[in-house]
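debug: dumping io for the single-chain case to check the tokenizer round-trip. Nothing else runs in this session.
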Amino acid sequence: MKIDTVREGGSALLQLEGRLDREWAEHLSGTLEDLLQDGVRTLNIDFSGVTYVSSEATRVLTRWHQELAVLRGDMQVTALPAAARDAFDVAGWNPNVDVAGPASQRHSSWHMRTDIAKCGDFEFSSSEQAGGLTCRLHGDPDRLARAPFGATECGVVPLTNGVFGLGLGGIGGSFEESSERFGELIAVAGCAAYFPSDGARKADYLVGAGRVPPRVTLATGLTCEGDFSRLVRFTTRADAEAVPLSELATVCLDAAGKKMAGLVIAGETAGLSGARLRRSPTGDSPVRFDLPEIREWLSFAPERTYAATTTLIVGVVARTPEGPLAAHLRPIGLTGRVFAHFHAAVFSYRPLPQRTVNLSALVRGLFANHDLLDVVHLVQDDRGDAAVGESAVVRGVGWVAPITQIA
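debug: decoded output
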């Protein structure tokens, strides 16, 4: 059996020759997985040289046919000889189905941005209605280094589908229920995830499915509610290794058209620079950020982590933030002109769509079908030669809206 692949951008042509038995079906599956991981979303598979097709081969093709359907991609199987067509007929699958979906569901108003990005190619589309977010500030982040948080400094936040946010807190409807486990937390589309700081070895999560939304208790953080105005899709340019988070955030902020914006990004990861608390900030003393005490409080890797994973990033980005919001944001990038706060939930790898996609369906699919590996606060390490740098992604999709009100 031979599998020849010709790649052109996001498309690939596979030419098969010989017997596609069970063993070679596994090789074909590996080839398709590599192509999807590398950003291919349009596949054309030429069967003209195939002399035999096993049931395992049709199972493999069915699997990746369905995976591409989720990714809003296209798969076409062409030039089927009679023996191969019989195998597909037995399997009950029509290999000529276009898996991109009805034309009425496709997005046609994409606009390329090439003027302000160095590492990524970005395309934006606008929603039918003008979006805008109300950003709510929770707690005082400067208190971390002054005094532990008590019940009066923390608040309970319900997480409806229209709310996304991040902070230090725990899943639970009261301070007493969750305060001993406060850690990095992320919430989007009625789902919440955090890494408990009580010695837990795995992140925990809650997916809302009933009439009562999940609730979290926050010591400090940001939540946003409203409608998104832009959908972005992005890939790494051929001459770059990955898209830095600072570039992605800056481009999205520019597209939002305001001084502040809220972002939700689903990306295939090149590497993350992240930290999380080892101890809850509700104990007997405030968090110590000086050496060597900081090692007792924070977990931080000496190099970027979680390459080749799928990451859900939530955050707020602004230019020259003022008032109470400024305490929640830190400079990102090399210029120091943009400020942000981002948390990330890290999942086992899954290729991401490069067309219009529903945010809630994507997020719930990650929690349902993939391992939640970690929840971290994304940081920029600027310590010089020993620095880790910043987080970076290879490709992905995102939702953006200007922040029109601070509450």
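debug: round-trip ok. The chain has two domains: 2-103, 111-135+167-406.
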